[in-house]
Here is the input.
Amino acid sequence: MTPAASEILAVVQRYAQAWAANDLKAIVDCYHDEVVFHYFGCSPLAGTHRGKAACLAVLKQVKERTNRRLVAIRDVLAGEHFGLIVAVEQFEHQGRPVELERQLRYAVRDSKLSECWIYDEDQRWVDEVLSSPAAQKSSSGSPT
Here is the structure.
């Protein structure tokens, strides 16, 4: 493994471990101050979010709308340019929990996560959940 791939793997593994432990301080510490998140689809949260504060705010909104929780981290991978976490998360929609696989691709800068692209197993369903008026009224939670 090249030095670049080794660094990316170490950063993404550190983040995956913090996420699995629900260690909010460690999670936030993994993000670069200028981190950028890319949410796909056509929900009100879709688009590009720039800066740690904006990214934490969108994570909080996703949590509030879905009561999301990590079920499992299936894989942590890294190459020359990106790291990848394959995770299973549970979202709640209309009182029912649903599990979905998500792929989170990361760029790394200064030993921090600097950019993230979120790819959902069923983007249409995620858009429905994030757009639902009922989802917007669910209880607030932590930004994991």
About this structure: The first strand starts at residue 31 and ends at 39.
